[in-house]
Amino acid sequence: MANVTESMEAHGHEHAAHPDFLQHHFDTPDQQFNASKLGMWVFIATEILMFGGLFCAYAIWRGLEPRVFDDAHHFLNKILGATNTVVLLFSSLTAALAVRSAQVGKRNATTLFLAITIACACVFLVVKYFEYSHKIHLGLLPGHCFGHPGFSAAIQNGEEVGTCLRMHADSAPVMPQWVKAVDEGGKAQLLSPRANMFFGLYFVMTGLHGLHVVVGMSVLLWVLVKNVQGRFTPQYFTPVDLGALYWHLVDLVWIYLFPLLYLVGKPE
Amino acid sequence: MSSENSHSSPASVRAAAHAPHDDGAVHVHIASSRFYWGVFAALIVLTVLTVRVSYYDFGQANIVIAVLIATLKASLVAAFFMHLRHDKLFNTVAFLGSFLFLAIFILLTYDDLGTRGKPESYTGILVDPRSGQAAPGGEPATSATTNDLAGEPPREGARAGAKE
């Protein structure tokens, strides 16, 4: 603490008086910490605006096609969605606890909580993988393949055709089709080709979110390595704090994605 | 809220950090582990609630209820896990500011969609419902100009289902 006071008196230009972690252009650790945090919050604001474009598209298409959205959302599994919600909320808790441990200087606890957070992120992605592959097999992948059970042989017009991509190569006109499939409630559904739009939004919104999960995992892994190397102290834990903020943002987005995609609509 | 107050750096200490004898060191609010677990428990309760509620049909209110519960959850995460509650106010302003601009974006988009195909009240210019274009510099809406605008064959559900 004495170092810090000295550096303040010297207007922060005495390198010897600076703690290692304090950048030259900051007067005090406090100033550096607050500047970093503000920068992170501005970044979070831009992230919200990016996701906001997709939420706007969702609101408009839902308004235009309420019935199609209603039918289509029954193809999402509420239980898997809720499981992933709990996993992400728990990982947010452990991220917050990792920051707390760093604040009080418990290095091993920080390592443990960061490891649990990363493990939860893995669980989330595995559940997402099963959800995605199930939808693709039902032929719910948006685009010209919509309605053609994907990546496997499909029966169409009485003759066996290859995958959707091969049909496309044959230059036959391939259009989104009606989907005949059993939804998550066990009910056989006939889904309009226009449900294409719902699944387009589903895959893009959860896909962009999934990308954030992967980035968040990488950031937290980097923080974990630095923590094991003993780079953080109660006076300098900014990377732990900002890494956790990013992770909480991932959680925040999912908090809205889950009800809007999985839950809203008429129950069967 | 009582467990929230059992932190090692009470508000008075935080205030001292900004007093004249500021030592320049990092002073943060440190909540107890128990408090974080409490927030987590509240989040789980709200998650269970939103899933349970989705098995009942409230008609138009479905989406309102879902978004309200989600907002409550998001507020808990932002205020406590993300420390906004004890952070510099300006960080909250930056965060909430993004929602203000998002609202402007969404309102203008809705305004565009909602006014397509209607003659603009001041100039009487028609916006073509099929293309959504023709407003700037367009002709007043008469039968002749609406015919011009219909140069393209009408497509089924052109506005809503432009993809097909």
Q: What's the structural blueprint in terms of helices and strands?
A:
The complex is a heterodimer of chains A (268) and B (164).
Chain A: H1 2-9, H2 29-64, H3 66-73, H4 78-103, H5 107-138, E1 154-156, E2 159-161, H6 164-169, E3 179-182, E4 188-191, H7 196-228, H8 238-263
Antiparallel strand pairs in A: 1-2, 3-4
Chain B: H1 11-17, H2 33-53, H3 61-81, H4 89-115, H5 143-149
What can you see in these coordinates?
- The complex is a heterodimer of chains A (268) and B (164).
- Chain A has 268 residues and is mainly alpha-helical.
- Chain A has helices at 2-9, 29-64, 66-73, 78-103, 107-138, 164-169, 196-228, 238-263, and strands spanning 154-156, 159-161, 179-182, 188-191.
- Chain A contains eight helices and four strands.
- Chain A has a two-stranded antiparallel sheet. Chain A has a two-stranded antiparallel sheet with strand order 3-4.
- Chain A is elongated, with a radius of gyration of 24 Å.
- Chain A starts with a helix and ends in a 5-residue tail after the last helix.
- In chain A, 42% of the residues are buried.
- The relative contact order of chain B is 0.06.
- Classes of the chains: A mainly alpha (268), B mainly alpha (164).
- At the A-B interface, helix 1, helix 2, helix 4 and helix 8 of A face helix 2, helix 3 and helix 4 of B.
